[in-house]
Amino acid sequence: MRLNRALALGASLLVLLSACSAEKNSKPTVRIGSVGFYESEVMAQIYGQALQANGYTVDFSALGIGTRKVAQPALESGQFDLEPEYIGSGLAYYEPGKQSGDPKANQTELQNVLNGKGGGITVLDYTPAVDTNAFVVRKDTATQFNLSKMSDLTAVQGQLKFGVATDCATNPVCGQALKDAYGLDLSKATLLSACDTPMAQALLGKTIDVAELCSTQPDIAVNGWVVLTDDKATQPADNIAPLVRNDLLAKVDKTSFEKILNDVSAKMDTATLTQLNKSIAIDKQDVAAVAKGWLQANGFVK
Fold it and tell me: Are residue 198 and residue 283 in the same domain, yes or no?
């Protein structure tokens, strides 16, 4: 009788352990979100499709959900599980003034902030690729005024027309930062969306001579424009890293899950990201197809 009871107890224990193991080893659906910007969406597709290739079901319904003011609370509250983030700007969103040109420092500070958000969020490895605020001129302007870096603008600013982001006056990395570092007076600059077509069209049409764009904006490569070096490091390092909710990581094999995403991030450099943006914004290719093509070219999917 005791033997039978022992066998029954052992069998029950085995079933329980097996069930727990199966639950831990099962792959939950991963809900991915992004801000409403094609570059963020293609990075989200890249991360998501890499996970799909490794047996995860991925829900992409939160792609392009809105601005950071919409996306971050959604991630914190668990509306989705994972998003690509620009770590310098992400840090500035939470702790203005702490962002810097050091991506590792930005990652560390952002992780510190996120530890207390929505049960905890982990910042994974960041990409070598950087997309940051860039101040751009046409080649003819660069040649005429001998411009290669931001400090070259100081002496000739009165002869140039500037186009800057609509929030430049209140943005801590725009108006005041550029005045303090370079002595630039942007109070009369044309205000336009920094990473959008109207800014690029204004520069192309010579309505402005210096434009604030995103550094990976495809218009720069297409038109052969010159990105001025931010030689006094006023702009934060905006490398891209996946943010993942800890409650998702608790449901997966954390080591292998993170490796999938970190391996992808390690392969994405700035030149490649710029080319992907061109494929989407200029060549009008489908975002998901562009993501798949890159993953296939780099051996992440078949």
Answer: no
